[in-house]
Amino acid sequence: MSVRGEGQRMAIIEPSVQSAKPSIRVRSGRRRRRRAMEFYLFISPWFIVFVLFGLVPLLWGLYLSFTNYTGYNFNHLKFIGFANYHLVFTDSEAMRALLRTAVITFIGVPVGLIIGFLLAILLNNKVKGLSIYRTIFYLPAIMPAVATGLIWQMMYQTDGGILNTFFGLFGMKPIDWMGYGMAQTSLILSGLWGAGGGLMIYLAGLKGIPQSLVESAAIDGASYWRQFRHITIPLMTPILFYNLIMGLIGSFQILVQPLLLTGNSLTGDPIEPIYLYMIHAWLNIFVFDRFGYGLALLWVLFLVILVFALILFWSQKFWVHYESGEE
Amino acid sequence: MMSKKGLKWTGIALSVGAIGTASAMAIPMVTNAAPAKTAAVKPAAKTAAPANQVTINLAFDSGAFSAQEVKAFEKLHPDIKVNLVTYNASALPAEFASGSAPDIIETTGSSLPSDVEKGLALDIQPYINKSKKVFNPHNFNNVVNQYRWDGRVQGIGDLYGLPKDFSPDFDIWVNKAVFKAAGVKVPSPNKPMTWDQVFQDAKKITKFDSKGKMVRYGLDYYATGQAQAEYQLLSLQAQEQGATLWSSNFSKAQFENPKVVNILNQWVTAVKGNIGPNSVNNDKNFFGSLFTSNKLGMMISGYWFSGFIRSAAPKTENNFEMVPAPVYANGTRMDPPASATGAYIWSGSKHPVQAWTVFEYFFGQQPVIDRAQTGWGLPILKNKMSLVPQKSKWDNSVLKVAKGELKYSGKLLRFNPYVDATTVNTIMTKYLTPVYYGKDTMQDAVRQIDGELDSLIQAGMSEAGN
User: Fold this and answer.
1) Which helix (H) or strand (E) covers residue A54, if one does?
2) A297, containing H or E segment
3) Under an 8 A CB cutoff, do A160 and B214 touch?
4) Average of pLDDT values for B194-198?
5) CA pseudo-torsion sign A228, A233, A239, A243
6) What is the pLDDT confidence band of residue B4, given thresholds at 50, 70 and 90?
7) Contact at 8 Å (CB) between B115 and A94?
8) Interface of A with B in 281-310 (CB under 8 A)
9) Residues of B in contact with A71 (CB under 8 A)
């Protein structure tokens, strides 16, 4: 083949290659735009709902936290700057309530985590009636909070309550479950009955542990406890971490249970040991009509939860093991 | 199996459909932000609604007004449709802000001054003045004055609402069987007990078995279902002794007044003695059931409780009697309504004239007759008093005591217009509960109550422009 022939062929080929290049660019640009449009269309239902019913009310609440809003003075709101936020940090009631909430969270969440995890370990065996047990342990987690609160109210009633009636059969004197000494313990106990909530995720994680690792360890003479410590727990840490974060976020926002356990209504005032931060915010908004201050309390709570969550995220490099090595 | 392209377009179609459905659902939510409303009545229209028909929303606790009453009203006024909705205090601020609040809203005499100061209640005096056929002012029982407010004093000034009925609320209902079982003399219906006597008898009646289980309580109070300090009751007891919980212009709380402190200490003793359900023993049993099942000796309540007994324990009604409201030795007898549930017309109602027409009917015409005949309260109109139950000897004995108490029901309890009753009760509970448990002193508690109430009063006064 002569170079000239090649050149001619090149001359023949080049123009078509040159004309194909813009056509490919145009086609790929159109395809990208179409894909982008499909993407936005698919996420639009969630996005619209999130913006309308999530983001807008959040930002509106943030604005109102800088005003003197009382629920009835909408037509003559006054911007008062950081006065409400200053009040949050100088309100000893709010700070004590925050401390109590933190104590209940740092006790209740880890205990709930351990119980849920151990339940999952137990239910990860071939036992007769396993599906029934799984349902029973998971059910409390899906019960409405108000129903749960009312059930525990009946359980904890000093006179004629279910627990005291049961213990009375053994000759025990009635326990003041919702008294000063026991109220926090009773609240934590009532929260633990939902420990089975993480069951499904734990079970999925346990099923994902490669059997080959377990068998290799067994062949090498590792006891059940060593397998549990060095294989099961490390591989389950991502799930434990997830449940820890979710538990922390949920526990800081406990509201209904303390109200229903001691009060007769949602405008009630629980006793001091279980007078938690969200209750303080709730009462300020719905009973005292201090909407602006109540919203400032909630935004401060958001920041507190964010700080603790960030600390947990930072800590995961020390104890959470991801199989892929990525975080 | 569907192709990739088919899946994609199906997904897009579903998304568009979801957006469309969400938008269609969002439109009524945005224009009528009332999350907890339930329309209890939608009578079938036999004929087409008039073109200018107006809908009036009436928010009240369910059961206060019936579907039949609504139907009867709409027959008389085909241009007005009445929508009964369940009263929801938590939803009201959002409804006021969005302009979608009910036209007629339930309230109580204790909250009425606060409703007026917040600018929520319409002045209905001009309408009442024009409605002399239904509301002759000489025909009002003096309880109606609880809905008068002149900006400083409750009981005088224009009317801003009306009670639906009333009872002198501080009488003592006595369970004779319980008194006999406890070996305590049954009080006379002809003269009031003293408060000291009430507490003493309650202590004698109260009994727990060896395992600490309650056999019977001595005392309970209908408003809270608990025998402990409560705002309206405390107001009565203070005013009987010439004291008051508020300064003359309501700018300060006065719980530190020695007479108020003495009353509170009496209630602390009552709680520690477990003479009734309270926040320490956490007994959630309904007071009505305790009373009619002979587990409660005395009930602080009003004439309206006879309606409960007629329905819950008709065969044993003779076991229960009502005696006059207690009074402190050397005190002034008082027996006003604790709260006289009623309603106001919202000042922002788009149809105040039609709202008034509905109000006039439900608070002045046939429904007043219906309610009086049930015996669940005394009518606010004097000429309807003869309609309350008077069939049996028991009916008449209870009514006799109630009528005798009417002359002590004119002097009203002083309710602060800048903090409502729920707020005061919540703050009282917050600081008194540690005292009930022995974790704080009364001195500390009342100081904190005054402090917190004062700051809320200041905020309320500033909002009201005072």
Assistant:
1) none
2) helix A291-319
3) yes
4) 97
5) positive
6) low
7) no
8) 283, 286-291
9) 92-93, 96-97
H or E, element range at A139: none
Task: Extract the tokens encoding A112.
Answer: 């709930």
HSE-CB of B409 using CA atoms within 13 angstroms: 29
Model pLDDT for residues A132-175, shown as the tens digit of each residue: 888 888 888 888 988 998 899 889 988 788 999 999 899 888 88
Asked whether B283 and B214 are in contact (CB, 8 A), the reply is yes
Q: Pick from B156, B77, B84: which is nearest to B113 by CA? A: B156
Most A CBs within 10 A among B105, B282, B420, B454, hence the mutation to make, goes to: B282
Give kind and range of the element (H or E) at residue B61: none
Q: How far apart are CA A196 and CA B452, in angstroms?
A: 42
Handedness of CA B124, B127, B132, B134 (dihedral sign): negative
- Distance (Å) from the alpha carbon of B60 to chain A's nearest alpha carbon: 18
> Are B19 and A291 an interchain contact pair (Cβ–Cβ within 8 Å)?
no
Cβ pair B249, B220 in contact under 8 A: no
Instruction: Say whether residue A51 is in contact with chain B using an 8 A CB cutoff.
Output: no
First to last CA, chain B: 74
Q: Residue B6 above 90 pLDDT?
A: no
Q: What is the pTM of this model?
A: 0.82
- In chain A, residues with a C-beta closer than 8 Å to the C-beta of B214 are 159-160
Nearest-by-Cβ selection for A74 from B19, B96, B282: B96
Q: Residue A72's pLDDT is what?
A: 86
Please indicate whether, in this complex, the C-beta atoms of B433 and A271 are within 8 angstroms of each other: yes
| DSSP assignment of B130-183 | H-TTT--GGGB-GGGGGGEE-SS-BTSSEE--EES-B----EEEEEHHHHHHHT
Phi, psi (deg, nearest 5) at residue B344: -130, 165
| pLDDT (0 to 100) of residue B412 | 92
CB atoms within 10 A of CB B380: 27
Say what the pLDDT of residue A214 is.
85
The CA distance from B148 to B115, in Å, is 12
Q: How far apart are CA B48 and CA A229, in angstroms?
A: 76
pLDDT in tens, B85-116: 999 888 898 899 889 999 999 999 999 999 99
A42 chain-B contacts, CB cut-off 8 A = 11-12, 15
Closest residue in B to A170 (Cα–Cα): B211
Spatial separation of the C-alpha atoms in residues B277 and B224, rounded to whole Å? 10
Q: Which residues in B lie closer than 8 A to residue A153 (C-beta atoms)?
A: 284
pLDDT for the residue B14? 59
DSSP letter string, B72-130: HHHHH-TTEEEEEEE--GGGHHHHHHHT---SEEEE-TTTHHHHHHTT-B---HHHHHH
Residue among A21, A25, A44 nearest A33 (CA): A25
DSSP string computed for A189-236: HHHHTTGGGGHHHHHHHHHTS-HHHHHHHHHTT--HHHHIIIIIHHHH
How far is B388 from chain A, CA to nearest CA, in Å?
Answer: 32
The chain A residue lying nearest B17, using CA atoms, is: A45
B380: DSSP letter: S
B140: left (phi over 0), alpha (psi -120 to 50) or beta: beta
* CA distance to A47, A57, A306, B19, B30, per residue, from B22 (Å): 12, 17, 31, 5, 12
Run of H or E residues at B220: strand B214-221
Comparing CB atoms, the residue among A71, A178, A283 nearest residue B426 is A283
Given phi > 0 = left and psi -120 to 50 = alpha, else beta, which region is B250? left
Region of residue A265 (phi > 0: left; psi between -120 and 50: alpha; otherwise: beta): beta
CB of A6 less than 8 A from some CB of B:
no
